[in-house]
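Ticket reopened. Same input as before:
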Amino acid sequence: MMVGLGVSGYGGEEGLGYMAGMFHLFTHAMFKALLFLTAGSIIHAVHSNYMQDMGGLRKYLPITHITFLVAALAISGIPPFSGFFSKDEILAAAFHSNKLLFYTEYITAGITSFYIFRLYFTIFWGKETRYEHKPHEAPLNMTIPLIFLALASALAGFIPFHDLVSSDMRPFDTNTDLMIALPSVLIGLLGIAGAWILYKKENDIPQRITALLGGLYSATYHKFYIDEIYLFVTKKILFNLVARPIAWFDRHIVDGFMMGMGTVTVKASEKIRKLQSGELQQYAFVYVAGVILFVLTFIYYLGE
Amino acid sequence: MNILSLFVLVPVLTVVGIMFTGGLKGTRIVAVVGMGIQLLLAAWLVFYYLAVKGSGDLNEMILVSDYTWFPSLNIRYTVGVDGISVSLIALTAVVIFAGVFASWGMDYLPREFFITLILLATGVFGFFISLDLFTLFLFYELAVIPMYLLIGIWGSGPKEMAAMKLTLMLMGGSALLLVGLLGLYFYSAPDGGAFTFNILELAKVHMPSGAQRFFFPLTFVGFGVLGALFPFHTWSPDGHASAPTAVSMLHAGVLMKLGAYGCFRVAIFLMPEAASEMAWIFIILTSISVVYGAFGAIMQKDLKYINAYSSVSHVGLILFALLMMNKTAVNGAILQMISHGLMTALFFALIGMIYGRTHTRNIYEMGGLMKVMPFLGVMYLLGGLASLGLPGFSGFVAEMTIFFGAFQHLDLFHRAATILVVSSIVVTAVYVLRAVGIFMLGQIKNKEHLKLQDAKWHEKLSTITLMIGIIGIGVFPLWLSDTILGSLQPFMDRLSAYLH
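Engineering reply: fixed in the latest deploy. New output:
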């Protein structure tokens, strides 16, 4: 989704959107890589991929906790972390070229900060899970990359991208427009606040909201059934309705025809074989009959 | 003594040598030495060819020599090679070398097995060096006949039926082919004079278009049967499934290319007018081959059936590219011959090795084999990735070239056919990854399989030889593609001379 946000800026006026898109791809690389590495560190600690097996991990994984927080703030576009700067430039580009895109990006920014902080609060705060093995912080070879990427996620926003990337080799003249930046940060904070209320302490509000949303929730839960559609197309249509009939057709019709030719040849030769029986009387009969036939034919034609 | 004749002489001498040995050990050593010399000879030929071309030789064929065989009919033993046949000779030498190592443990009648196998290779080498259609046809038959014995005696499953079916269908093709070749012969002297079977002479003659229209389909289908042209491909799944490992390797790897090479060198090159007129029929048939073969492979349970159908699809692509009749596509077709030859030989070698351990080829009876035989598993996966056209492997180079060439046609028919054929890449990915997922990955299904050993040294040697070729072409495609391109000019000249 965040990459979509970055790419959507391409159309912006006079290459501003392009520059902003590249900038965002750059900062996104930092914090998204960091998020995946922290995920690895967490999975390494609790031996599970599922969030229901996690909770209260801030006490056990301090370095992972802080670096995750940095990445989460960066992806939510909170200043001064890198995501704020790049997202701001995309928004600025979108504001001048396409208002629909602009508001979509506002909403998306809110959802982003909400989901990432839901993750953060559930994993590092939330319920006090009892762990069979006490989780422990990852070794140095895993935490050093985390710290490095956290620094990059925090500071990459200060790189003057608008001087470095442009379509005509001239730097862009950009400055942060408060009218765009302020609502964007507020929306981000709103998302974080929402996540805080719902997930910081274990409570039953999420369940009640789930019940309220009904079908929309289950559609979202199943990723809008896109995987199911793919599976349906491959398994049901391609496998069962295309590949299987083709395999059958090949074995029974195409090959059946070839085998049939062989069978017909065998059958025909069985019949023809009887002509050469070795019985002298039969040969004599065929011979005499043939002679008579020829003679009659000659007489008939010569008599004309 | 012409140096090219050594390519026939060395295998024949190897066969004679094997006759004087006894037991598996002596036999295979003689076979390895013979085929090793053949491989060195092929390597020398490649370098010699590049050197000669590098020094500015403009002849269409090099190392040409000519002996009269039957003067009354002007049948000659004429040999010569260009870049295309040089690359195919190198391919054959690699595959037969790997094939000998893949049959290292052949315990049933080893002497007879290696004699027949190498006799088959003799036919293939002879075919690729021949410039005389009669000699060419003779070697072609020499390559097809031993197949009957090899499958019928050393095969598995319903081997007698498979051997019979394969031989009869290929013989049916030969019958059509013979008519086509005789047609070429009897139209070879329009102004009187001696008839000739010589390809280079025939290329100078303009065969009447009426005759071309009659003889082209006979020749193309005749060779096409061996190239698994739809609907004459059904010998392939049964034949490959029943054949012993080295025979499947050689057959899918090299013999099917004989068909494609013949379609190119004889049918299209010598009868270009009819070829371009009738191309649409065969483009439809080969497009069906490509897509249909790929879909046929999806639902198979037997590893050899998967790869047999995959060969139908890939060799169909070669014929498809030849019919596009432009330089890029034909270059791609030849690249695909080499690439598919190496890939499919690797697949059949690996399947033979896996079958030798698990005694089953049904993918549903295996699982998790990657854990017990990592070397074979990784090789199979790499072969699969090459087959689905991953960059870095030869399959990508060949397929991309073909699709580029095919897309150079601007009309709707060619475009539609090309798009259809390109879609088969996705299907290829499905059947390759499905098989790997079921029998290589996941949990070990059969407890007995835990005791299995990974590849032995001769198996590693066999598969690595082929893998070097695949990656070599994938990473350095230009030397091969330039070798081929250099030899395509006469073909293009002839096409443009007769078509415009």
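Chain A has two domains: 2-221, 229-302. Chain A has a mean pLDDT of 81. Please confirm and we'll close it.
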